Amino acid sequence: MTQAAALSPEYVLLGFLNQQPAHGYDLHEHIEAKLGQIWHISLSQTYNILNRLETQGYIAGAVQEQEKLPVRKRFRLTAAGRRRFEDWLSTATSLARTPSAWSSSRACILPARFRPPPRAR
């Protein structure tokens, strides 16, 4: 995997959905809040990526009706999406350990943000 591919917003969205299901707008806001100083992604780009991930079977969306408001879609990670995310997490963590692989040290924090907490014994 190349450095550019490892930093794709696709994996950031999969990472947030790995933590919990969410609506597209909420995912976009989460990216802006957590990574906005590092990276900008437009709302339309967020929705395009979500639609592509859903078509590819990595996420599933459920339409939710709202009274007097447009319908919303709540996305969740599928088993295939979880495997894709875990594969990326392993690769991105390896890249982060290679000093010459990433020019920005801030990019190395992305895999750490999605690492699950250690299990209680």
Lay out the secondary structure.
Layout: H1 3-6, H2 9-19, E1 22-23, H3 24-35, H4 43-55, E2 59-66, E3 69-77, H5 79-96, H6 109-114
Antiparallel strand pairs: 1-3, 2-3
Helix pairs in contact: 2-5, 3-4
Write up this protein.
The protein has 121 residues and is an alpha+beta fold. The chain has one domain (3-109): Arc Repressor Mutant, subunit A, CATH 1.10.10.10. The protein is built from six helices and three strands; from the N terminus they run ααβααββαα. It has helices at residues 3-6, 9-19, 24-35, 43-55, 79-96, 109-114; strands spanning 22-23, 59-66, 69-77. A three-stranded antiparallel beta sheet has the order 1-3-2. Helix 2 crosses helix 5 and helix 3 packs across helix 4 (43-55). The chain is globular. The termini are far apart. 23% of the residues are buried. Mean pLDDT is 79; it is low at 99-109 and 116-121.
